[in-house]
Amino acid sequence: MILQALNRYYERADLAPLGWEYKEIPFVLVLDKAGNFVHLENTTSQKYRRGRSILVPLSEIRSGKNAWQKPNLLWDHYGFVLGQQKKKPNGDLDPSDSPEKARKQLDSFVARIESLSASVPDSVEVSAVLQFYQRGEYLKVFDTPSASDIFKIPGANITFALTGQSEPVLHSKALATWISVHANAEHEEETSDDESVTAECLVTGNVEEIARLHPKTKGVCDKPTALSAANTGAIPSVSSYGKAQGYNFPIGKPAAFAYTTALNHLLARDSRQRMQVGDTSTVFWAEETHELEDLFGEVMRDDPNRGTDALKALYAAVQTGKFTLGDAQTRFHVLGLAPNAARIAIRFWETAPAIDLARRIQQHFEDIRIAHAPHEPEHLSLFRLLTGIAVLNKADNIPPNLGGEVMRAILEDLPYPAPLLNLAVQRCRAEQKPTYARAAAIKAYLNRLNRRNNSQERYLTMLDPDNLNTAYRLGRLFAVLEKIQEEASPGLNATIRDRYYGAASSTPVSVFTTLLRLKNHHLGKLNKGRAVQMEKLIGEILEGILDFPRQLALPDQGRFSLGYYHQRQAFFTKSEPTTDKQEESK
What we know:
- The protein is α+β, with helices and mostly antiparallel strands.
- It folds into four domains: 171 residues, no CATH class; 82 residues, no CATH class; 190 residues, no CATH class; 124 residues, no CATH class.
- The chain is 42% helix and 11% strand.
- It has a four-stranded mixed beta sheet.
- A hairpin with a 6-residue loop joins strand 7 and strand 8.
- The longest helix has 21 residues.
- 40% of the residues are buried.
- The C terminus is likely disordered.
């Protein structure tokens, strides 16, 4: 189903045609018509650090010790184009490569150009490139001062252009036509038994030549990796009825090209239909051009201004049941991918009508909505939510699976994963402070779990004085005791929170009796009206608490954190005065 949806996206989107793909080409060798080297053109910039993407013939599928035998047509990395051993960005030679391998790569690259020249003898462009090699002009490239820049980009790709032409050699009309018709078929990797296999394609249903190896997907793993792959027939455990590799799951070559082209387009660096949370790359698309394709990414990314506007538009769509672009019942797809040892792993896959997914996304933002300071963003993006509960608030410290699991919970309207609560509570205890993101995560986790269990317990956005949960009230009590201490000793560097928060939230009986005794000393420093007001608030909170628990389980530690956070926010929220303040003003 995933491959079929990607195949349909390829058919409707303006993507690379069969036999072609977009590649980042940072360097262009500019030649004259006689094949003389003129200069080295650098296409990189602040925006395009690895060069501009241009349409090139589909890259060869190569692996193993004979990979040097598969050069790309008129473009490749500097090992093939210039016969240079790989170098690290610091200029040191890469020990994983060798001069002998680079020489073989160059020889195979030139041999393919010679074959191409015989097929298109009238092409001035191909003739110039061939003479560039036959006359040894390629050796002059490294005499230019900027040649060292090539090695600063790992695996830098290079292609050719002629002076006076605005397009690369690959795009000359006659050559491009020939490549589209012949190149892909002429240079496909041979099958192990030197015979093509024809069968019904699982994606299209058409009888086609089956792809033994599928093109690789970029942007998920450190290097291009296949989404669909199987080991060779030499390993019986991965063979079925004597079939090996791609013949285990017959997919025609056109469909294999189409789905990987679509996926690479969605995963591109500048794609607006991709987002990264932890190690999970999430891509999304609709069966037709749709407003939700723009809204989905905007509300999840960490861009407060655009995210707020997008969320308003999403809420409006849910309320009216209509989108400004696209039908409410259009199928919308979300795919989560993560790196794995041998191939890309699928973390989640969700497909549903656009309006249903919009409602689930809205529910997520309602779940995490909580009182916060005026300077904090109105809505927490998924990225900000997860970094807020990570160690040191760094994205690198988000647990690998958490981003994907939270996204799956959002899309399928499931309870949030337990590690979300666990991490939020742990960070509250470690830093002795519930923050906006941590409190939002705890509230969302508890409310969604209660809905799934049909529990009537609910936690509000603001302080809930009517909530009788003991852990929640103890959190409120701790916040009140801290506030009394702060007002009694202005400018205090450390409060009871810095010493007692961890114990108060996990083993209340061990600290609250002491804290309640200390509060009498602090109350004595307040004016009489304020002292009476705070005493009354403490009495209201303690009402119904028969005894301090010896220990609080993890969910109750979350409730404690939420009660503390709510009460602290209430102290600084002018729009919600307490009953005590109202009485004081009379």
